């Protein structure tokens, strides 16, 4: 158990080196410091891509933990709670209303809109009977579906389907180069914010009664959690497109082993998420080399399998 | 002292509580009794500010609930609701540890760790400390929840049916512990008690509720009588005595 974090770190470093080395252009890492071309490939393409994958995997997994504490249900993620579709809706709106708007305005629009739709999800599930554990993910899927349909409709009308596709359908990293992924650091920062609120989020998932009894302002923690989930998702959606499953599967796997003491488990969640996504990205790059598969496809297969396994191996009391 | 003045409560158009006016004495063990649906849990939740007050006024140790910050109240009273089922996968020690959160806000000090181990010890949970809550029995989980409220170490302790799921030995152990808190440390406890003889044996003060109203209140000898209890539960009971306390019998 104690060796696990160390082992995970070693594996992560190995995978990062692999990620830096693998690609169509042959690059000798050791020679890079005196080979300007190799250095260019490394700094402009390989390193940004590797960092983008790590940040996305870590931040989405942390966002998954946060949304699961907010709704007190393990079977949701930022991709099934209306959040990604909300971000896309915000991006569409700002693209149509303020053409050529600066990037920061687009980020704010995407985050704010994602926050509204996720709050809508919370409002919907608050009315569901608590014991019906499976109604929550179903409600999330339905809401995501409806919002996704709206996005598609508006995108179609405004002739922006190409963008909608890159935001919601095919999250992938092949287009990542220096200068086009840095927003993901904001996602990383938002995820780090969750760690500072780890105790509060853990207490919130004990229920409103316990949280209030311990003197917690549940509304404040809710807002903070919403902000984290919305900002992480909005940054990912705009930069690389939504990545499915990771925010659902990683929190579940880690909780199974470590439990829900978030102060201890969130760093592990972040590292595991980075690890899983990097593995999938490497598979996506190598499976039909020199061509690439979308990483979402690999994750869909792997994540779907893990999710089915989780459904059949639920802990005794859910 | 806890004072409740003119408290009405309704859900939708249904009146749950009717003009409740009462006092819970300080340094005493108060038992709330009454049939199912009498409004005991509702009153407890209102006092514990888990439910918003619709009318009237409640003060706890001189602090008006309407004007005192919830974080401040968490250092004055600990409340354990009736429904303690949670979906979180926490270890017993972690749950009990959250009882200290109002005091340290995320930075546990040595005295916080001491209180947690004392609480684990007091509820015979030390050997279960590292077990997950979803991997222990219902009674053990119930004890873990009570231990969390205990670790909160507040002048007032409010417990809604804490004896649920507890076997006879642990129920007795809890009552002994609570009366020791009251008599030894001068703390105040208010609890909803389902099994009336626990109130008869341990309570200093009894409040009997029915249909959202207080039907009788006072010391056990004046409340736990055949006349009051038969009317309270709409069923004939006889009251004997055992070790100079009332003993309620309801065998046919
Ligand atoms: N959410 C609710 N909606 C409607 N009625 C409720 C609700 N919760 C409780 N009640 C009603 O309020 C009354 C008092 O409930 P409660 O305080 O739980 O009683 P007790 O704890 O004494 O058994 C009951 O008649 C119950 O049916
Ligand atoms: Mg009750």
TrEMBL record, chain A:
Alphabetized GO MF terms: transmembrane transporter activity
PANTHER family in alphabetical order: FERRIC ENTEROBACTIN TRANSPORT SYSTEM PERMEASE PROTEIN (PTHR30472), PETROBACTIN IMPORT SYSTEM PERMEASE PROTEIN YCLN (PTHR30472:SF27)
Membrane topology value: Multi-pass membrane protein
Protein name in the entry: ABC transporter permease
Keyword Transmembrane included in the entry's annotation: yes
Keyword annotations from UniProtKB, A to Z: Cell membrane, Membrane, Transmembrane, Transmembrane helix, Transport
Localization annotation: Cell membrane
Species per Swiss-Prot/TrEMBL record: Paracoccus alkanivorans
Listed GO biological process terms: siderophore-iron import into cell
Family: Belongs to the binding-protein-dependent transport system permease family. FecCD subfamily.
GO cellular component: plasma membrane
Transmembrane stretches, start-end: 51-71, 83-101, 107-126, 133-154, 183-204, 224-254, 266-287, 293-311
InterPro entries for the chain: ABC_BtuC-like (IPR037294), ABC_transptr_permease_BtuC (IPR000522)
UniProtKB/TrEMBL annotation, chain B:
GO molecular function terms listed in the Swiss-Prot or TrEMBL record: ATP binding; ATP hydrolysis activity
Pfam families registered for this protein in UniProt: ABC_tran
Record's keyword annotation contains rRNA processing: no
Coiled-coil features, chain-numbered ranges: none
CDD domains with a match to the protein in the record: ABC_Iron-Siderophores_B12_Hemin
Keyword field contains Zinc-finger: no
Protein name, entry field: ATP-binding cassette domain-containing protein
Phylogenetic classification of the source organism: Bacteria, Pseudomonadati, Pseudomonadota, Alphaproteobacteria, Rhodobacterales
């Amino acid at each position: 158990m104690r060796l696990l974090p160390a082992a995970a770190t070693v594996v992560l470093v190995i995978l990062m080196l692999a990620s830096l080395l693998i690609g169509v252009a042959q690059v000798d890492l050791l020679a890079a410091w005196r080979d300007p071309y190799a250095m260019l490939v490394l700094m402009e393409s390989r390193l940004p891509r590797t960092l983008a994958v790590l940040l996305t995997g870590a931040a989405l997994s942390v966002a998954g933990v946060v949304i699961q504490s907010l709704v007190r249900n393990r079977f949701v993620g930022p991709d099934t709670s209306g959040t990604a579709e909300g971000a896309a809706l915000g991006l569409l709106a700002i693209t149509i209303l303020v053409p050529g708007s600066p990037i920061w305005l687009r980020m704010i629009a995407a985050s704010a809109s994602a926050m509204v739709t996720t709050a809508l999800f919370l409002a919907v599930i608050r009315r569901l009977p608590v014991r019906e554990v499976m109604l929550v993910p179903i409600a999330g899927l339905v809401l995501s579906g409806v919002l996704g349909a709206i996005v598609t409709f508006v995108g179609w009308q405004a002739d922006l389907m190409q963008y909608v596709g890159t935001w919601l359908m095919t999250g992938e990293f092949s287009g990542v180069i220096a200068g086009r992924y840095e927003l993901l650091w904001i996602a990383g920062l938002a995820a780090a914010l969750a760690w500072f609120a780890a105790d509060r989020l853990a207490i919130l998932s004990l229920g409103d009664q316990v949280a209030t009894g311990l003197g917690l302002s549940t509304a404040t923690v809710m807002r903070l959690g919403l902000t984290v989930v919305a900002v992480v998702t909005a940054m990912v959606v705009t930069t690389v497109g939504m990545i499915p499953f990771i925010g659902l599967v990683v929190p579940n796997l880690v909780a199974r082993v470590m439990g829900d003491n978030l102060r201890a488990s969130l760093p592990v969640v972040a590292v595991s998420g980075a690890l899983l996504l990097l593995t999938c990205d490497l598979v996506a790059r190598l499976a039909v080399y020199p061509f690439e598969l979308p990483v979402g496809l690999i994750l869909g297969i792997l994540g779907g399998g893990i999710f089915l396994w989780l459904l059949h191996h639920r802990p005794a009391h859910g | 002292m806890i004072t409740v003045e003119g408290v009405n409560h309704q859900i939708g158009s249904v009146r749950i509580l009717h003009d409740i006016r009462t006092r819970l004495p300080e340094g005493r063990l108060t038992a709330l009794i009454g049939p199912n649906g009498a409004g005991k849990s509702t009153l407890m939740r209102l006092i514990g500010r888990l439910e918003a007050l619709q009318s009237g006024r409640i003060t706890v140790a001189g602090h008006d609930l309407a004007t005192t910050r919830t974080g401040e109240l968490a250092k004055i009273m600990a409340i354990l609701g009736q429904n303690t089922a949670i979906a979180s996968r926490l270890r017993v020690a972690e749950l009990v540890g959250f009882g200290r959160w109002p005091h340290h806000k995320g930075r546990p000090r040595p005295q916080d760790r001491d209180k947690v181990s004392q609480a684990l010890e007091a509820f015979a949970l030390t050997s279960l400390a590292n077990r997950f809550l979803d991997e222990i029995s219902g009674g053990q989980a119930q004890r873990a929840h009570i231990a969390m409220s205990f670790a909160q170490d507040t002048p007032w302790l409010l417990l809604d049916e804490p004896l649920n799921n507890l076997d006879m030995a642990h129920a007795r152990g809890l009552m002994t512990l609570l009366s020791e808190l009251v008599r030894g440390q001068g703390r105040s406890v208010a609890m909803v008690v389902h099994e009336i003889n626990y109130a008869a044996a341990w309570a200093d003060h009894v409040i009997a509720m029915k249909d959202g109203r207080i039907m009788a209140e006072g010391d056990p000898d004046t409340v736990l009588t055949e006349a009051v209890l038969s009317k309270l539960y709409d069923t004939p009971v006889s009251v004997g005595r055992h070790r100079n306390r009332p003993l309620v019998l309801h065998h046919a």
